[in-house]
């Protein structure tokens, strides 16, 4: 069976059975195509562990980030596991390959006081606000106030927003859904946005966040909005939608929220994925240690 047939089956499996996002599919396709090009389109059923280790070493020589190398090897791992599951190969050649460790980094996130400055929009005087201003503030506040991912925000529909219950229904990775609560400020802001949205003459009937022309917002627009507003209140290097998600989790943790609750709100499948946010709150942990441990100074 040709490589192309095997790959077609693999990507169909990822999309229809595993519910992988289009972004994951595109990344896997690029990584696998690069792998096959390196080995001159060798038959996928004929690879051995030595070749995979050789390829991993080649990637390291390219001075790629450990995270990039791990992603490329993960794509290969998923492919070869699929081939074994469907009995095209007898063993998975990527199983014996050691992936590079990721360095633990403490992210520089906006402070609570900095993000509080964003609340300066006066909701009581909506006549001085326009559609895009209200929409942009809703996007900023929803990302920080709920911790949802950028794509989750883009995919929100009008039916997902329930102001009477002060909550939104979020569809995350793998099409998993969760209910996330809204604070009073965000609920009021969304209400104002909906009133502006209803006045658009032409619009997408389902997407919640729209452009002025009534079309669904895209990734680039959301990034530009976030970067623009964060630049006005903070000097942190990374001003992205994901940084607001990180700030949401870290600020919740610093105020005493438990990791399991934060995990549920973020839509993480495991607690390990949530524990990364404890890295930013090490100062609080040290303070607690110094106050309560009998041998602390």
From TrEMBL:
Residues 104-290 form the Tyr recombinase domain. Keywords: DNA integration, DNA recombination, DNA-binding. One of its GO terms (biological process) is DNA recombination. Signal peptide: none annotated. It comes from the Bacteria. Residues 1-84 form the Core-binding (CB) domain. The keyword DNA-binding applies. Transmembrane segments: none annotated. Belongs to the 'phage' integrase family. This is Integrase.
